[in-house]
Structure formats: C-alpha cells, structure tokens
Amino acid sequence: MNQRIRISTEELEQYSRDLLHIRDSLSQLSSQLAGIHIPREAGGELEIGLRISLASRRRVGGETVSELVRQIGRVIHEYSLETGSLSASVLRASDLFTENENRLINLFQNIQQGETSAHGAHAADSGAAAQSARDPASTRAEYDQRCKERAENAYDKEVAKLYEKYVKKINIASDQTPGAYYDSWDNEVYLDWKEDASNSRGECYTYFHEVGHMVDDYTAWFGDSSSSKDFSKALKSDFDNYVNKVMTENNCTRQEAYDHISDWLWEDADLKNGLSDICGGLTANQCSGAYGHDDSYWTGKQQHGIPDKVNNEAFAHFFESSMRTDGTKVEYIKEIFPNAYEEFKEIVRKKI
Questions:
Q1: pLDDT for res 333
Q2: Per-residue model confidence (pLDDT) at position 87
C-alpha cells in the first residue's frame, strides 16, 4: 500500500522546477565529463555540482531529490572504480527518475512552453530573452561576431569601456578545450567555443568570464584589481549582512539561513551561477546553489579574511554579468553584494 501525502499546488510546482533543473544539470554534466579519465582512487572524490539543500522536499512518485543526488554519486563512483573513465551514456538523467517523475517533468515543461508562447511579445522586449531566442552560432566566426555584438550592447557601459581597452590583448590559445580556464602566466584563454555558443548561463558566458580574469590580471599590474582590501572587505561584510538579515527575517540559525539562501540560489540558477560560486567560496560550500567550485579550490591563501580565489572569481563574475545585454544578473548580484559590486565599479572607473 502506497502512502499518499497531501501536497499544495505551489509545492508541486516547486518540486517540478527542482526536477527539471536537476535533469538539465545532469545533461550538461554528462557532456562535460564524457571521455574524461578519472583515476580509480579518485572515484569517490568526484564532486557533483548539485547541493543537498533540496533534501527536505516532499516525496512525489516515491523519490526525493536528495536520493536522486545520491544515486548519481553512486553511479559515477561505481563506474569510475570499475573502468577508470566515464562516458556520456552512463549519465542518462531520465534513467534516474521514476516514471511518475518523468511525466511530471514533461508536463511542467509543456506548461512552461505554453506560458512562454502566450507572453512571447512581452518576452521579446527583454535582453535576456533576446540573448537566448536565436540559434547558437554554427561557426567560430559567427561565435566571435556574437561576442562582439554582446560587447557593443553591454548593460554596463563603463565595464564595456574597460573591455575595449584590453580587447586587442585577448589571446584565445585554444577554442576547443573542455573545462575553460585563463592561464595567467601566458595571459591566454582556453575555452570550447561550440559549448559556449549554447551556454545555458548565456551566450558567450565563458568567454566574458575568462576575459574578466584576464582584465583583472592586467589591472593588477597597476595596483587596482580584485586583490584590493576594500573589495575583500566588502564581499565579506555584504555576505554577513545578508545572512544576518535572513536570520532575523526567519528567526533561524546561521546554518538555517545558509539553507534559505541556497534554496533561493537554486531558483533561476543559471542567472545566479556567479552568486552561487561566490557564496560557496565564502562558506566552504555550505551555502551555494547549482554552480560552484570544489571545496579544494577555496583552500590555500587568504586575502584580507577570505579565500584569495573568492576575490578573483567575484571580479570575473561581476565583469561577465556587466557585459550581458540586460541587467538581470547585475541586479541579482546587488541583492547580496551591493557594496562589493560598487567596489568593483570603482576599480573599473580607475582603469578606463
């Protein structure tokens, strides 16, 4: 006999959103991990960018979100221990959901698509919708043109001026590198343009994030960069102020406030990816959403009371967000880090 649980329409909708986001995240994770060799001894160490902040969700169709995450971890752990590598076929997201949950996801997607069609005229007016409406670039030249168009129509004109100052110094050393990064030693950017052309976080997201690291590196030569004491202090104080606000509003402990914030970061997660990463860096990943670096990334050198790499990543996230054609991500950033964003802008103004 199955136990029935009374659940509200709002809870069901939220659960549907959670399942849909996990499925999309898994699809992205699958393509990122395909073919990557994983040493056998490291199989159990692989970090999934999915947090267990959803563990308290009610049961629908016999599964909880936390159980799904555990299943994913077991699949990767067992497969990597057995073969030492991963393939995309191992991570078929739909196989990890019950039949009822897959029906729920598909139903929710259909409803969303219907709402999008009904409000298409209004959505076309927003920069965010415009960025995602067209087909991804099909050639490297088209991708370069999309990056150029985004820069020309950037939300923050001051940040765009700083970009223009250094644009001729940008060196894409490789455009087919899985796992993008910026090499500060040679001032080179490595990325996969095809992947970035259809990036769920925004077209050309990776390009502008890595270029943000490059610009930060160049500005450091002249004394003003993410390593500034004021920027570090603002990041820490802004976050503490926001946590205290959540604690007061919900009459809860600090850890419970982290959970509240994490749940909020999961909403509209692709547009809060930078916030999720920064919050994770400030809390050893105790407070984060769908995106972030591994725990080990944040260990090491401290910069004015916070991990040094938090400053670096915050600058790159702020830079990329400001170079979008709409202000959605910037407004999300200001929700938690208003003073830190203003310090970022001060660094920008001194350099343009």
A1: 97
A2: 41
Q: Please say whether the beta carbons of 101 and 19 come within 8 A.
A: yes
Q: Are 94 and 19 in contact (CB under 8 A)?
A: no
Nearest of 315, 322, 317 to residue 343 by alpha carbon: 315
From the first residue on, what is the mean pLDDT of each consecutive set of 10 residues in the chain (352 residues)? Answer: 43 63 56 44 37 33 46 51 44 51 59 48 42 78 96 97 94 87 88 93 95 90 79 96 97 95 92 96 93 88 87 96 96 97 95 86
pLDDT at position 19 is 63
Nearest to 28 by CA among 269, 334, 255: 269
DSSP codes joined into one string, 32-96: HHTT-B--GGGGGGPPPS--GGGTTPPPBTTB-HHHHHHHHHHHHHHHHHHHSB--GGGG-GGGG
| Nearest in space to 283 (alpha carbons), one of 267, 295, 273, 269 | 295
The residue to which tokens 């990056």 are assigned: 147
Instruction: Report phi then psi at 137, rounded to 5.
Output: -60, 140
Three-point CA angle 298, 301, 303, nearest 5°: 95
pLDDT value, residue 302: 86
Query: For the packed helices 157-166 and 205-220, what is the interaxial angle rounded to 10 degrees?
Result: 70
The single-letter code of the amino acid at 251 is N
Are 321 and 329 in contact by the 8 Å Cβ rule? The answer is yes
Task: Provide φ and ψ at 191, rounded to 5°.
Answer: -155, 175
Helix (H, G, I), strand (E, B) or coil at 241: helix
- Three-class secondary structure of residue 213 per DSSP: helix
pTM for the whole structure = 0.66
Contact 159, 321 (CB under 8 A): no
- Angstrom CA distances, 254 to 231, 233, 243, 246, 260, stand at 23, 20, 7, 9, 10
